[in-house]
């Protein structure tokens, strides 16, 4: 606030000082008006002498520059072209300058204090906008106003198409700062100096009150990069922000709902056909959604908006979820007879590190108990074989044959059961790997959606408080 007050004070001081200098210079100019009888006809005849000097700068001393005070009022932001990096606005330009020859005494000239003069009849400063990139489109005003003290006032409405560096990374919560720099074709302060007609706060307040509140863009602030001294150019920084309601309703919410449905699809069994069919349908629906919203996203070669990155990652997550479902179905329906053991690297990576990372309980200890039980059974089987051998040595040949047959059958049954247990163990390990990978993808979904929600809320808050 202190800097703004000092800037306003400096601006007013510079204008007042320059006005004093101009008045002192003007007193040295001999008046061209001779309203002897005080009639309007005599006044107009005298004013013709001023019109004859249209081709020259209206200064009594050409060694001193002519001061032109300027201000703008932003009425509407007509459009923003992100691809072409263009800003289209409608502004009113107000200019005020001093004409040393257009001074008269109202008392001797029939009480005439000001007069309207055709624009093409008097000298007008050649002020243009440096960022202008289109043909000069404006409604031509036919007259300007000349005061009896020598001040000339001129207003010009203009549709300005200017170049602006637009950053769309925060779309649809983007804020842009575009500049309109007013200067002269001579580009020197020796002939024309520019200053401010209205203070900084006045320009911003008038533009905020007159700006159209129903459009897509909202005026935040108009800043002036002018130190308050008269110079050869004046820059107005127009800060605008987009109203994001349309894009939130038509872009963000549908995409968030589709991803929420995909997250809840993890409650379905990963090895069921219903889950795979559901994810394929959801992926197809998201592709149709991308085709619909293609026209809503801004097109530019300078960068990609955050929403575009989000949509691409959502599509990638849908594809990853479908591939993970297909992988689980493949390892469960591949066939028990041809299923090989889990590779050691995959066993260590998934059943140990990933499971520990996800706090997922595995059957590792149960497998250890099974190994211990198998060792006990093998020892018992060996002991039984030794006892059977001792019995057959004491009995006759008939008992030996009978017991040998029973021992062989029991050994075969044990091998069959051990093979089935081994296949069951391998199947359980593959199932655990699939479930852990499914949980990993599910946690990644939740992490991504949480991070995106936090970033979105932070950008929204920045936009709201701008």
Describe the protein.
By secondary structure, this protein is of the alpha+beta class. The chain has helices spanning 2-26, 40-51, 200-210, 245-264, 273-292, 306-332, 344-358, 364-394, 397-464, and strands spanning 66-81, 86-98, 114-118, 127-129, 143-147, 151-163, 175-184, 192-196, 217-224, 233-242. Mean pLDDT is 75; it is low at 1-30, 368-384 and 386-394. It has nine helices and ten strands. Helix 6 (306-332) runs antiparallel to helix 9 (397-464) and helix 8 (364-394) packs antiparallel against helix 9 (397-464). Strand 1 (66-81) and strand 2 form a beta hairpin. It is rod-shaped, with a radius of gyration of 43 Å. The chain is 49% helix and 19% strand. The strands form two sheets. The protein has a six-stranded mixed beta sheet. A four-stranded antiparallel beta sheet has the order 4-7-10-9. The chain starts with a helix and ends with a helix. The chain folds into two domains: 2-243, Acetylcholine Binding Protein, Chain: A; 247-464.
**Whole-Å distance between the termini?**
16 Å
Q: Work out the count of structural domains.
A: 2
Largest sheet: 6 strands, mixed
Low-confidence stretches: 1-30, 368-384, 386-394
What fold name stands as the CATH topology of the largest domain? Acetylcholine Binding Protein, Chain: A
Give the CATH superfamily of the largest domain.
Neurotransmitter-gated ion-channel ligand-binding domain
Secondary structure category: alpha+beta
If helices are DSSP runs of H or I spanning 4 or more residues, what is the number of helices? 9
Helical content, roughly? 40-55%
Alpha carbon gyration radius: 43 Å
Write out the strand line-up for the largest beta sheet, numbering strands in chain order.
Answer: 3-5-6-2-1-8
Strand content is: 15-25%
Mean pLDDT, to the nearest integer, reads: 75
The CATH architecture category of the largest domain equals Distorted Sandwich
Q: In total, how many beta strands?
A: 10
